[in-house]
Design a protein that fits this description.
Elements: E1 7-8, H1 24-36, E2 41-42, H2 43-49, H3 59-64, H4 73-84, H5 89-102, E3 116-117, E4 120-121, E5 125-129, E6 132-135, H6 169-178, E7 184-187, H7 197-204, E8 217-222, H8 224-227, H9 238-250, E9 254-260, H10 270-281, E10 285-292, H11 300-312, E11 316-322, H12 329-332, H13 336-347, E12 358-364, E13 367-377, E14 380-390, E15 400-403
Parallel strand pairs: 6-7, 7-8, 8-9, 9-10, 10-11, 11-12
Antiparallel strand pairs: 1-2, 3-4, 5-6, 12-13, 13-14, 14-15
Bound molecules: pyridoxal-5'-phosphate and iron/sulfur cluster (SF4).
């Protein structure tokens, strides 16, 4: 049975039948916050994921619908006032743009990771860790629905200067031809699975030839299993997608679908289960990841349930992230201590098969930093941390220590422990380190 995608955004979400039963304040909040934050949902999310009997407290509603509390009070007030006064569109847009720019739309210096090919700056590529290249195909810079916590939202809201998108698969291939150290290509977005099968093939199939034998793994980062599982079931080109996956496996490469699941309910529908089965039948692996988000998944039981269900379905739990310092972070953020407690309480409830997951991790300038825990060393309470990925690979897996801080929500708020001036990876006498990818110095 095929299913047609209906997209809902600010201009037409009132057509969602369930919206009529929402309190007026919630509608007003969508109108106001929805100007600033990404807002897009669809009929699958509305019909099968959201619990409308308690929408205001429902994590899946919160995942897609902008809320008042996601904006700073003064920002909310500015937009609300303009809308109430019928301010002209351009003035509203200017104000909205200013607010967006104040929300740290490009966290963790992603622009530092954009490499060159000769003199050409390859805007659609990020190369931060030697073995893995991120590729942002320009047709994949949107999603089947938008997460309110998304840190890639500038890519969707027309802030084109910040858009890491690249048209030519050719340039990408030229880059990979030279960089033989790269073993993994990660297609990301937005969501690359919004592309049609032939566009996706145009990017992937050339990499399966012998000249790209160093590329061992193709990864696709996607939330399509949550937002539109019919991508693999009944869309017009769903069979072509599955066929492309078959081809990658037949070429002797690893295909890993990096699936984003934020809540166990996303794994509950017949459609998602069928889609997972169909992907796995090609020989592809599905690895799962999610940020830890207040109001959405801030209870250990949800995580243990999610990991167990993923293993039941043949998926491999991979990363738990700390919410990034961007967008509506104040609404979603949790102190690092709380993140670690949620992680370990969930981790200890599950068997070793679920313990492939690593976290809680922060993707910062320096690398992916895991909070290993809180411990007391000779009377001083400290965070124990380590790099899961480091801008310099030599940093990886060396435990290091930061002063305990019950309020810290991100690595940049932490100070070295034991009265040290700097962390081991920072340059002498400063709190800085080289942000250029070491490969391109
Ligand atoms: C996480 C990440 C990768 C992939 O790292 P793995 O540990 O191999 O999954 C690559 N590039 C960037 C920028 C990342 O944040
Ligand atoms: S699916 Fe990913 S890229 Fe798309 S809105 Fe959600 S977090 Fe952002």
């Amino acid at each position: 049975m095929s299913k047609a995608l209906s997209i809902y955004m600010l201009h037409n979400y009132r057509n969602i039948p369930q919206v009529a039963s929402l309190p007026d304040e919630i509608i007003r909040d969508i109108e106001v916050a929805g100007r600033v934050l990404p807002f897009k949902t669809n009929n699958y999310v509305v019909e099968q994921l959201i619990d409308w009997s308690d929408a205001e407290n429902d994590p899946l509603f919160t995942l897609n619908f902008p809320r008042r509390e996601m904006l700073e009070k003064k920002h909310y007030a500015t937009v609300e006032k303009m809308l109430a006064q019928g301010t002209d569109k351009d003035t509203v847009n200017d104000a909205v743009q200013k607010i967006r720019l104040s929300l740290n739309p490009n966290p963790a210096g992603q622009e530092h990771n954009v490499p060159y090919l000769g003199k050409v700056r390859l805007k659609g590529i990020q190369h931060k860790y030697p073995e893995t290249v991120l590729f942002f195909p320009s047709q994949g810079q949107t999603c089947h629905a938008y997460c309110t916590f998304c840190f890639r939202w500038p890519q969707f809201s027309g802030m084109s200067e910040l858009k890491f998108a690249m048209k030519e698969a050719d340039l990408f291939q030229s880059y990979l031809r030279i960089h033989r150290e790269v073993t993994d290509v990660l297609l990301t977005g937005g969501d690359p699975m919004v592309m049609n099968a032939s566009t996706l093939s145009a990017y992937i199939e050339p990499l399966l030839s012998a000249e790209f034998n160093h590329i061992r793994s193709i990864r696709i980062g996607t939330k399509s299993l949550t937002y539109w599982p019919y991508r693999y079931l009944s869309d017009a080109d769903s069979d072509d997608i599955i066929h492309l996956f078959d081809k990658i496996i037949s070429a002797g490469r690893n295909l890993s679908v990096q699936a984003h699941f934020n809540h166990p309910r996303e794994l509950s529908t017949g459609a998602v289960r069928k889609a997972i089965g169909r992907i796995r039948a090609t020989g592809a692996q599905i690895r799962t990841q999610s940020p830890l988000l207040r109001h959405i998944n801030d209870r250990p039981e949800l995580w243990s349930e999610m990991w167990r269900t993923q293993v039941d379905l043949g998926c491999i739990p991979y990363y738990m992230f700390v919410a990034r310092d961007t967008g509506a972070k104040p609404f979603f953020e949790l102190p690092l201590e709380k993140c670690w407690n949620i992680f370990r309480k969930a981790y200890r409830r599950v068997s070793g098969l679920c313990r492939t997951v690593r976290g809680p991790g922060m993707s910062d300038h320096a690398g992916k930093i895991q909070v290993l825990g809180i411990q007391e060393v000779k009377g001083e309470k400290v965070f124990v941390l380590r790099f899961l990925q480091g801008r310099n690979p030599k940093w990886v897996d060396i435990p290091f220590f930061a002063e305990y801080d019950p309020h810290a929500t991100w690595f940049n708020q932490l100070k070295p422990a034991f009265g040290e001036e700097k962390f081991f990876f920072e340059e002498h006498g400063t709190r800085h380190f080289d942000t250029k990818p070491f490969l391109f110095e």
